[in-house]
Specification:
alpha+beta, 9-stranded mixed beta sheet
Length: 363
Amino acid sequence: MDYQKLRDEIKEYAGIPRVSGYEGEAVHRFADDLRPYCDEVRIDRIGNVIGTIKGKEDGLSLMIFAHMDTIGFLVSYLHPDGFFRLERQGGVPEKLVQGTPILVGSESGKWYPGVIGARAYQTMSDAERGKVDPLSTLAADIGVHSEEELHRLEIEPGCPVCYYPVFYDMEDNKICGSYLDNAVGMAQLLELAMYFSSNRPKVTLHLVGTVWEETNAKGAMIAARTAKTDMAICLLSPGCSDTPDLKGVSNVSMDGGPCVTVMNFHGRTLDGQVAHKGMLELIKSSAKKEGINLQRCVLRGALSDSAYLQLEGNGIPVLDMGAPYRYAHSPKEVISLKDVDETITLLKKFVNELDSDFSLDRF
């Protein structure tokens, strides 16, 4: 695949502000991008985008989905002097936010650049210099001087705030940017739509951008009800464990190929999923036929939309997979275009190998 084209698609999606619950711009953009390639494109009641390519055989349907939303913040309090406080929306690592550039959305839809303030180094004591200040003690700044100016700009409590978009190239076909999770998944879905529009699969294919993943991980449940799918693949890979701080956590490495999450589990909610055996075997055989290395991960402390989607209807077989990336949920993530490309190639093979004889049973 043309890496430059893939890179540009990822950059476009990554640059769209789409804080969880406020994904409207991304929803309409993604639906428009899918329409030339799908037999039908729907936006369901909560905002999921569902592009359908009808299969050559009656019966089985597969939903491949990626979440469109991102972590971010909401304005929570306006200071009289024009600063404002923020509340986290999703899993924002508080220790990374001081001094972070942001975009602040107004109620009219306009976005204003700003920054989450950080105390000047010279004003801190030795003890304070080694301390992480909670988000509740920090103030965001867009350069105005009063609460009245914030009201005039239509910045009110509840307005969305995201990391200021950053995107640049690194060595050896790596890219770095804000919100690559999961702009990469959206770009992969678009590439699949382009391919299967002229290479019609045997099964019906639903290519879906979901909402709400970062806040409740249940948007895909509604998409499955709308699409009435039989099985699903979640395009979400675990993070790499090849950086010095994560050695020994897993064997997942960048440039090692697509990764399947064999199991994930979130202890606080007692939710998670184990990959459907039939789907796992088919993705393994597809990787072997394509000469692609398939990585595997067992993940504790996190989950995806699949944990809830699998409980729909009579039970929906699920599989989580994707291109692994570094520095998840930070303002700058890193991913390999090679891994992204190989994930697309593997999914094409998986879908082409799938037919109506595939067993949905778990054992």
